[in-house]
From TrEMBL:
Origin superkingdom: Bacteria
Keywords associated with the record: ATP-binding, Nucleotide-binding, Transport
Protein's UniProt name: Branched-chain amino acid transport system ATP-binding protein
Pfam families the record matches: ABC_tran (PF00005), BCA_ABC_TP_C (PF12399)
Origin species: Aquamicrobium lusatiense
MF terms in GO: ATP binding; ATP hydrolysis activity
Annotated InterPro entries: AAA+_ATPase (IPR003593), ABC_AA/LPS_Transport (IPR051120), ABC_transporter-like_ATP-bd (IPR003439), BCA_ABC_TP_C (IPR032823), P-loop_NTPase (IPR027417)
Keyword match Nucleotide-binding: yes
Domain ABC transporter: 19-260
SMART domains (UniProt xref): AAA (SM00382)
GO cellular-component term (any): plasma membrane
């Protein structure tokens, strides 16, 4: 890892949960996929949601981001009950899902891609018609965002020419254009090679200093390196929570992972 874990573990704002869920429950017909899950996502911290295959991680992710309606339970964002709110309104409150703006434009430069994301973010934030800001005006901010994800020196390159890992970094830049209060990433390291994994993990750590961040992740080494808080799910229920040292030594967690394909990560 290029970022030393100790250097990124800031306790600033640790007591303030930006996003909380209580008693989160989801049934698909008779099947209980998520049962009575409590979770708190804090400003300035990386919260990792882990668990064996089929544990309910994606379902919790989709519940928190309002893509699914819970069967029971309550979700609160910045002290506002968002349980019944539609995803677009929740997005305007600052909850951003990976990679919400996403779909980068291959033929366009990295800089123009981020400018367009900023333009869309402006449109998302205001409810009334107003003239679109010119792309030129957005360039300084777009350069800042590219710098934040380590792509400033490639700003004029075509997005299509980037490596897979750098494309994901560009997507993070477009996501940051929304200035998330809460950023939820679903398997942000999936499909990446070793070097890209390290860069993305480092980037996630940096990004989390300015927001509350939840990631669903299978890569337990990265979870150990950058996760401040871990929630372990099994069969739709919270099996354990705490820092990595706590959950990884919990005999129930070890048993849950034994024999699962995640166990080897
Ligand atoms: N739309 C659906 N309809 C019916 N069952 C579903 C649906 N979505 C998920 N499930 C079931 O709910 C359970 C939890 O699935 P989920 O995808 O949330 O797990 P996961 O922890 O994300 O798994 P993985 O690590 O394999 O992605 C699984 O048994 C799955 O088959």
């Amino acid at each position: 890892m290029t970022t030393h874990p100790a250097a990124v573990r800031s306790d600033a704002g640790a007591s303030r949960a930006v996003l909380s869920a209580r008693g989160l429950t989801k049934r698909f017909g008779p099947f209980l996929a998520v049962n009575n899950v409590d979770i708190d996502i804090h400003h300035g911290r990386v919260h990792a949601l882990i668990g064996p295959n089929g544990a309910g991680k994606s379902t919790v992710f989709n519940l928190l981001t309002k893509f699914y309606t819970p069967t029971a339970g309550r979700i609160v964002l910045d002290e506002t009950d968002i349980t019944a709110m539609d995803p677009a309104r929740v997005a305007r409150m600052g909850m951003v899902r990976s990679f919400q703006i996403s779909a980068t434009f291959g033929d366009m430069s990295l800089l123009d891609n981020v400018c367009i994301a900023l333009q869309r973010a402006n449109n998302l934030a205001v409810q009334f018609w107003r003239p679109l800001s010119s792309l030129d005006r957005l360039r300084p901010r777009a350069m800042e965002l590219l710098d934040r994800v380590g792509l400033a020196d490639m700003s004029q390159r075509r997005a299509a020419d980037l490596s897979y890992g750098r494309k994901r970094a560009l997507e993070i830049a477009t996501t940051l254009a929304l200035e998330p209060r809460v950023l939820l990433l679903d398997e942000p390291l999936a499909g990446m090679g070793h070097e890209d994994v390290e860069n993305m993990a480092s980037l996630i750590s940096t990004v989390a200093r300015d927001c509350a961040l939840l990631m669903v992740e299978h890569n337990l080494k990265v979870v150990a390196d950058i996760g401040h808080e871990i929630t372990v799910l099994q069969r739709g229920e919270v099996l354990a929570r705490g820092d990595y040292a706590t959950v990884s030594t919990d005999p129930r967690v070890r048993e849950a992972y034994m024999g699962s394909e995640d166990g080897g990560h």
